[in-house]
């Protein structure tokens, strides 16, 4: 933390200690002690780390995005990514890593298939139509 935050925290802790001692002297609080040095551990998001020290990624967002490119492969990739999350939460890191890799491969395959479909459905007929127009105009 920055120095200004520490100064602010220590001044708040001192004020709280004075206020508590004043209230205890008045008899409105039970006698307890406050130690400003004891602080709770910061709340962090749990992350599972494998033996290599790398966090296991489930590729869920990539697989959901790939649904828009090729529906069937995207759905299968999303199911694999969800399996990866489930295995990760149960502690099966090797299974989670395997399903994560499968989900990534399927999602990338879905995106590639979507690009190929776009080329064949939109651009190829457009190019053939333009070639036909040019050929007819040249006669």
Low-pLDDT runs of 5+ residues are: none
**Ends apart, CA distance between termini:** 78 Å
Strand content: under 5%
SSE run: HHHH
Total tally of structural domains:
2
Number of distinct helices? 4
- Quaternary structure: single chain
The gyration radius over C-alpha positions equals: 30 Å
Q: What is the number of E strands?
A: 0
Helix residue percentage: 55-70%
Please tell me what the overall shape is: elongated
Biggest β-sheet strands, sense, barrel:
none
Average of per-residue pLDDT values: 80
| Secondary-structure content class | mainly alpha
Gist?
InterPro entries: CD225/Dispanin, CD225/Dispanin_fam. The protein is an all-alpha fold and 139 residues long. It has 4 helices and no strands.
